[in-house]
Amino acid sequence: QVQLVESGGGLVQAGGSLRLSCAASGSISSINAMGWYRQAPGKQRDLVARVTSDGSTYYAESMKGRFTISRDNAKNTVYLQMNSLKPEDTAVYYCNADIYEVRGFRYNYWGQGTQVTVSS
């Protein structure tokens, strides 16, 4: 069994910064892509950023230049550094990982979500 545990959300003023972390644990053989999604009330869950196992990154257009995704493969952890936060960044942020388990199966896992609230 595999778990993704997120941390780092909270309340911040506009223009501020937050750093999210997501650690994967359990019967993990390897991890392919890891990423962050977000979902605001009444809206669909959208991709924020993702990073592959070799470090290639992708960002949604509105996050470019403000957010930085990174990962520590030794710790099975992905990070999201969020700078210059705006009220419209307010959402629940979810970690996602494409994981190969020790038993040979490949699954796409989600974290429980962490709330990010940006006040104006």
Can you give a write-up of this model?
It is a single chain. The chain is mainly beta and 120 residues long. 0% of the residues lie in helices and 62% in strands. It contains no helices and 11 strands. The chain has strands at 2-7, 10-13, 18-26, 28-39, 46-51, 57-59, 67-72, 77-82, 91-101, 106-110, 114-119. Strands 2, 4, 5, 6, 9, 10 and 11 form a 7-stranded mixed sheet that branches. Strands 1-3-8-7 form a 4-stranded antiparallel sheet, with no helix packed on it. A hairpin with a 4-residue loop joins strand 9 (91-101) and strand 10 (106-110). It is elongated and about 50 Å long. The chain starts with a strand and ends with a strand.
Features:
120 residues; 0% helix; 11 strands
The DSSP helix count reads 0
Question: Largest sheet, if any?
Answer: 7 strands, mixed
**pLDDT below 50 for ≥5 consecutive residues: which ranges?**
none
* Beta strand %: over 45%
Order of helices and strands, N to C?
EEEEEEEEEEE
Number of strands: 11
- Apparent shape: elongated
Structure class: mainly beta
- Helix content bin: under 10%
Mean pLDDT equals 96
Using only CA atoms, what is the Rg? 14 Å
